[in-house]
Amino acid sequence: MPPLANLLRAIRHPFGEQPEAPADTLCPVCRSVCKPLASVDFNKNCEEARGLKLPHSGEAIEYCLCDACGFCFAPEFAAWTFQDFERRIYNADYEKVDPDYKQARPEANANLLEQLFGSSKPAHIDYGGGSGVLSAALRAKGWSSRTYDPFVDRDARVQDLGSFDLVTAFEVFEHVPDINVLFADLHSLVKADGLILFSTLLSDGEIARGRALSWWYAAPRNGHISLFSAQSLRMCLNQRGFNLASASANLHLAYRAVPAWARHLLPGA
Fold this sequence. Notes:
It is a single chain. By secondary structure, the protein is α/β, with parallel strands linked by helices. The chain has a single domain (21-262), classed as Rossmann fold (3-Layer(aba) Sandwich). Helix content is 23%, strand content 20%. The protein contains seven helices and eleven strands. The chain has helices at residues 3-12, 82-88, 94-97, 104-117, 133-139, 179-189, 230-238; strands spanning 25-26, 33-41, 60-65, 72-73, 124-127, 145-148, 164-170, 190-199, 226-227, 243-246, 251-255. The protein has a six-stranded mixed beta sheet with strand order 6-5-7-8-11-10, sandwiched between helices. Strands 1-2-3-4-9 form a five-stranded antiparallel beta sheet, with no helix packed on it. β5 (124-127), α5 (133-139) and β6 form a beta-alpha-beta unit. It is globular, with a radius of gyration of 21 Å. 36% of the residues are buried.
């Protein structure tokens, strides 16, 4: 550092050690340096589109956008504990901002799985399945199905659960503060010739630098803190040896080798 710069630093900070410059925020997907995109109020929630407007909290949540891969995330939540999430987001009021999560959504997803794979009934685990409604519905139809939720099953170790033909993760990816843990867990749970079926809404066309973060899915009160573009999602899976196929902007498949019982979904793979 030039002598003049040293002198200026001493004038500005005359006592004690000089403060460290803030570390760059790195993209969890591609490790590029990310810049802030926009801030939204903590109470911004997914039900606003259906008329639920919570009182303004006055707490700004900053989202960063990776200009290299399109991943958008709220870095603040990486430091939260389970107790923080339980107290601030997944509390008694959570159902107001996600009224379908307890019953309607898991039952609908169980019906989808029965339609897609009911004739083969692959050994299944529902990752992030909460209280296990989806798995219970499948077991009632003759499936071998279980649930694992990192938030609920805090004493369980993923490595002890075994591996499964089919791993599902419905409306999970956007809630995860550490996506590296998510993808490591999924990699551990699925067999080499197994399938991961998951839902998360892709951000392509919805998020861009220079625009307000008005997309309904960017909702900190719902815990929507990791928002994937198609590119960032593909990169995460490719880094771990998976291929990606998307049936829609919200429903996706990850696989290494297509199992025989799923070839009707991926005939050309």
